[in-house]
Design a protein that fits this description.
The complex is a heterotrimer of chains A (326), B (104) and C (230). Chain A contains twelve helices and eight strands. With 326 residues, chain A is of the alpha/beta class. With 104 residues, chain B is mainly α. In chain B, strand 1, helix 2 and strand 2 form a beta-alpha-beta unit. The model of chain B has no long low-confidence stretch (mean pLDDT 88). In chain C, the strands form three sheets. Chain C has a four-stranded parallel β-sheet, with helices on both faces. A three-stranded antiparallel β-sheet of chain C has the order 1-6-7. Chain C has a two-stranded antiparallel sheet with strand order 8-9. Chain C is built from seven helices and nine strands. The longest helix of chain C is centred in the first third of the chain and has 17 residues. By secondary structure, chain C is an alpha/beta fold. The chains are: A alpha/beta (326), B mainly alpha (104), C alpha/beta (230). Chains in contact: A-C, B-C. Chains A and C meet through helix 5 and helix 6 of A and helix 7 of C.
């Protein structure tokens, strides 16, 4: 990686700057004000990941705010990556919230367009989209590097120290375009990228080759999205219903094969066998991903299965996480 | 469609629309448009609070006398079973409110 | 053009509850061309509502008329003579028409018979699609003639998002093409796709609805005022 001075001094940034393979996790906040849920999930991820993302009203379903949950996990000793969508906030709220987050010591911010509210539990809500994710990245970059609000006014005392992230969906239509979009985000000011869940290694290798050729990986750290499958049904669902999700047949076959020979009535055994295979596949995929040029780490999305992160990180030889100096 | 609705408004309990056999329309697609409109009238009748079945389209050729009688009787039976719409019978020759105000 | 469709008959029946005599007024311009409020549509809707109210036991007399344009004073002034005998007016004009009538005749209850939906046009017979939201600062030069504000569910300026479904469909509705998928295709066809690598800066929404009610004043077209004693 480059030798330039650190922008935020977050643990995630330090790991990447030191050339270490980074590991991030994900926490979905509760649909309540129960801080206990956050602490519980935090305890399952702590020490196994360098930082944990906290989603922001994902799929348009109202949950505890990302920033608030981020403060809670930071207090528990786990570094947050807060997420901010363009769907729910205008530029005033975005700048205001990031200043507040920075005041609480939060540094990593993932900038997203946001799932449309029609997917969620408040489909009649007005969506905002004052800015899009590209403009959001650029705005935060200018706040940090130029100490400037979006309107041009000076931020007295300097801008917040941020490590700016963006998302990438390598296989969504139009596929040829996606590496170019990645480049555009790099130019906008992204420091790191977390991709959508990857199950198709061949296609991902092609995508990363294009990204490397475009020079993207010289300025941006790409973390590949991985996630353990719970069951063959889940794999099929994702392939059929999530945009850009490419799940090869051999993965689905392996998941189906995992429960062969176990009686349909023994639900517990079937679940255990399925999940064990899902974790195995995830570990193998991480091993493959480590070898791809331009990859700086993995983003593990163990949706509602935070307990899976420990065996995955250990199984992939990524435990313990490295110490990095301040 | 306005004609069909006004017929119901005037008190008709059912309206049967006959068009040529599909594919044999002198005006090519006239009978197809007619079917679409009769279906739309049926939907309107449902929204008004009347049964959509009171408007029906049949396809028939001029030479199918016996078939026509059969379909007409069948329709009359359907309408009898549904009973009167409940709308007052109004004289067909009554003045309909005419549009006023010039359109250039 | 402005595109609207009729309110459901049940909603109109409820709106007219308690009224005995109503004048339905159609419009011969935009809503006639999208078959929501023209002469024929006024006839069909009035007939349907008369029947619905008669079946409820509270028949409403609905007379029918039409004007060329409901949005301009000159075309509706003459109605003033007739309105006295009616309890309410059911306007089958767009929202502009309803309000122009209401402003012109503040003593008469003007009710909307249509839901004004969008600015758009017919893409095929019987189908109208939204094309413009009147943002007040047209950016079609940057997007090859496809508007992301009216045709992208997230109004992205630097799209597409990650939710483009297979075949270039919007994740929100499989019937809706992803506007940005189309923009990239169009710019490619025009051989200017590389322009899309430039980052479009945040939009100034103050020219749009967000800035408040818009107004255009053309001094060159206003009625000249004669000065006293000049």
């Amino acid at each position: 990686m480059n030798q330039t001075p650190l922008k935020s001094n977050s643990r995630l940034e330090r790991i990447l700057a030191a050339g270490q393979f980074a590991v991030t996790g994900e926490i979905g906040p509760p649909k309540s004000h129960d801080a206990g849920v956050i602490r519980e999930k935090c305890s399952q991820l702590k020490t196994y990941v360098d930082a944990a993302n906290i989603t922001d009203n994902q799929t348009g379903i109202v949950r505890m705010s990302s920033i608030a949950a981020g403060i809670l996990i930071r207090n528990e000793g786990l570094e947050p990556v807060i997420q901010m969508t363009c769907r729910d906030r205008n530029r005033l709220a975005m700048q205001s919230d990031i200043l507040g987050a920075a005041a609480h010591g939060i540094k990593n911010i993932l900038c997203l367009s946001g799932d449309h509210q029609s997917f969620g539990n408040h489909p009649g809500a007005k969506n905002v989209h004052d800015l899009d994710s590209m403009q959001l990245i650029r705005m935060f970059q200018e706040m940090r590097d130029n100490s400037q609000f979006q309107c041009g006014e000076e931020i007295k005392g300097g801008g917040p120290p941020l490590f700016i992230g963006a998302a990438a969906n390598p296989f969504a239509d139009p596929v040829a375009l996606r590496p170019l979009r990645l480049k555009k985000k790099a130019v906008a000011g992204a420091d790191f990228i977390q991709t959508q869940l990857i199950y198709d290694m061949d296609r991902f290798r092609e995508y990363m080759k294009k990204a490397v050729d475009l020079g993207v990986t010289e300025s941006v750290s790409v973390l590949a999205g991985v996630g353990p499958l719970k069951a063959a049904g889940m794999a099929r669902y994702m392939r059929n219903n999530v945009p850009g999700m490419s799940v090869p047949d051999h993965i689905i076959e392996r998941m189906e094969g995992a429960v062969k020979g176990i009686s349909n009535d023994d639900k517990k055994a079937r679940m255990q066998a399925s999940r064990a295979e899902g974790i195995r596949i995830c570990i193998e995929q991480i091993e493959e991903i480590k070898e791809i040029e331009g990859i700086a780490g993995v983003h593990i999305m163990a949706i509602e299965w935070e307990a899976a992160v420990k065996p995955i990180v250990e199984g992939a030889g990524l435990y313990p996480r490295p110490e990095v100096e301040n | 469609m306005g004609h069909i609705l006004k017929t119901f408004e005037d008190g008709a309990d059912g309206v049967l629309v006959a068009g040529c056999l599909e594919g044999r329309c002198h005006f090519q697609t006239g009978n197809l448009y007619a079917r679409q409109r009769v279906e739309h009238v049926a939907e309107l009748l449902d929204q008004i609070g009347l049964e959509g079945e009171r408007a029906r389209m049949i396809n028939i050729s001029a030479g199918m006398g016996a078939k026509f009688a059969e379909l007409a009787n069948e329709f009359a039976k359907t309408i009898s079973a549904l009973g009167p719409t409940g709308l007052k019978k109004k004289p067909a020759s009554r003045e309909l409110p005419l549009p006023s105000g010039k359109i250039e | 053009m402005i595109v609207a469709d009729q309110k459901p008959i049940e909603d109109i029946r409820k709106m007219l509850k308690g009224k005995k005599k109503v004048l339905a007024i159609g419009c011969g311009t935009c809503v006639a061309v999208c078959f929501a409020g023209g002469k024929r549509e006024v006839g069909v809707l009035s007939s349907a509502v008369r029947m619905a109210t008669e079946l409820e036991g509270e028949p409403v007399q609905i007379d029918e008329t039409i004007v060329q344009r409901q949005c301009e004073k000159e075309f509706i002034e003459h109605l003033g003579d007739q309105l006295g005998e009616y309890d309410a007016v059911l306007s089958l004009g767009c929202g502009v028409g309803v309000q122009t009538l209401a402003d012109q005749f503040p003593g008469t209850r003007i009710l909307p018979g249509l839901n004004t939906k969008f600015m758009g046009g017919p893409t095929e017979q019987g189908v109208w699609e939204e094309r413009c939201q009147g943002c007040g600062n047209c950016l079609l030069e940057y997007t090859g003639g496809i508007c992301p504000i009216s045709r992208c569910a997230k109004q992205l300026m630097n799209g597409p998002c990650g939710g483009t479904d297979e075949g270039g469909r919007c994740e929100v509705d499989p019937d809706t093409p992803c506007a940005w998928f189309n923009i990239w295709e169009r710019m490619d066809a025009l051989d200017i796709q590389d322009q899309l690598m430039e980052i479009q800066p945040p939009k100034d929404w103050s020219t749009s609805r967000d800035g408040g009610r818009r107004k255009i004043v053309r001094k060159d077209l206003q009625k000249p005022k004669l000065d006293e004693g000049s």
